[in-house]
Amino acid sequence: MPKILILLAVLLLTPIGINAESFRTVVEGTVEVFPGAPETTVSIGINSAVIINIGADARFVRGIEIEITAPQSWLPYRGSLVMMMYNNLSPQAGTGVTDMIGSRIAFEALPSRLRTIYHIPIRAQHGLRNTTTVSVPSSIAQPATFPIMFRLMQVTKGLPDSFEHTRFNIIARPILSDEGAVRLVPRFPPQLRNRPFTVFINDIAITNISEQIVLREGENHLVVVSDDYRNISRRFVVERTRVTDLIIELQDPTPMISFEAPQGAQIFLNNTLIRTRDPIPVEPGTHDIRFQISDYTITRTLNVQRGKTYRVALSADLTINEED
C-alpha cells in the first residue's frame, strides 16, 4: 500500500473530537472573528497553522467561514495536503513553533481547487449545508472551546524542496444568524412606580426583563398585561445583529375622555360643564355626555372601561347633492 494511503488510513481511524492529540506546528498568525470585524488575511505554509479566536459576544454568529486560496504552483501537487482543525487547545500560545495539545474536530484531504471554503458550525441549530463549493464538518466547535486551529499538513513524500515554500492565504469570517436582540426599558408613571406587569413577546412570557432577548430579525409583537397599568399591544422591528432598546411606556389605567366640538358649543359630562379640551380622567362605568349649541342639544351615553381612552367629537357637515 502506498505510504500516503497508509498515513491517511491511520489519520481517519484516529478518534475525532474525543481524545486530545499532541502535535508540533508553526503558528503563522491569529485572527479574531466577530460581527463587524475587519477582514484579515494570514499566509501559512504547508506544515503550519493559523489560530482563530471568536469575539466575546457570539450570540449572532452561527458559524465560521474559512476561505483558503492556493497558488497556481500547488496544482501539480494536488492531493499532497490535508487540512486539520482542532479546538480545546493547550497552551494557547502565540506565533512560532509550538508543541500543542488539542481535540481534532475536522480532517480531510485539501480539495483540488485553488479556492476552498469551509463552514465551521458553532451552535447546534446552525442551518449550514454542504454544497459543491462549501464543506461543513460534522463536529460543532462550541464558543467555549475556542480558539480553534486550522492546520495544513503534508502527507506525500518525495516532493521537491520548492514545494516547502508554497503559501496559502487564509481568511476567516463570521457566518451571521438572522437574529438581533432587544433590551426592555420600562418607564413608569410618577404616581405608579414599580408595580407588577407581565411582558409577552410573540406570545411567549418573558421571565426576566432585565436580560437582553434574542429574536429573529423582522417584525415582532409585544403585549404588556397588568392590573396596575394600561395593557399594551404593539409591533416592533428587530434588526439583524443589532441590540435595540425597546421602551415600554407604562401608563396610569384611569380612563380618559377628550372632547372636540365646534366653537361656541357647550359640553356637559354628567351635567357638569367642561371648560377644558384636555383629556379628563373618569371612573369606569356609565357617563352621560351632552353637547349644546344654542337651542340644539344632542346627548349620548358612554360606557367607559378601565385602561381606555375615548375621543368624543361633535362635527357639523354640509352635504350638497345634484339632482336631475
Structural summary, described in words:
- The protein is mainly beta.
- Helix content is about 5%, strand content about 50%.
- A hairpin with a 2-residue loop joins strand 22 and strand 23 (about 295-305).
- The chain is elongated and about 110 Å long.
- The protein starts with a helix and ends in an 11-residue tail after the last strand.
- About 20% of the residues are buried.
Defining traits:
single chain; 324 residues; mainly beta; five-stranded mixed barrel; 24 strands; 49% strand; elongated
Range of strand content: over 45%
The beta-strand count equals: 24
Q: Nearest-angstrom radius of gyration?
A: 34 Å
Number of helices, counting only DSSP H or I runs of 4 residues or more: 1
In terms of quaternary structure, what is this? single chain
Q: What is the makeup of the main sheet? A: 5 strands, mixed, barrel
- The average pLDDT score comes to 88
Stretches with pLDDT under 50, minimum 5 residues: 1-17
Strand order of the largest sheet: 1-3-9-5-6
Spell out the helices and strands N to C: HEEEEEEEEEEEEEEEEEEEEEEEE
Helix content: under 10%
- Looking at the structure, what is the overall shape? elongated
How far the N terminus sits from the C terminus, by CA atoms, comes to 106 Å
Structural class by sheet pairing and helices: mainly beta
Helix-strand blueprint:
Blueprint: H1 3-13, E1 20-33, E2 41-44, E3 48-54, E4 61-69, E5 81-90, E6 96-109, E7 115-121, E8 134-135, E9 148-154, E10 168-176, E11 179-187, E12 198-201, E13 204-205, E14 213-216, E15 218-225, E16 232-238, E17 243-249, E18 256-260, E19 266-269, E20 272-273, E21 280-281, E22 285-293, E23 296-304, E24 309-313
Parallel strand pairs: 1-3, 7-8, 11-17, 18-24
Antiparallel strand pairs: 1-6, 2-10, 3-9, 4-7, 4-10, 5-6, 5-9, 11-14, 12-13, 12-15, 15-16, 18-21, 19-20, 19-22, 22-23
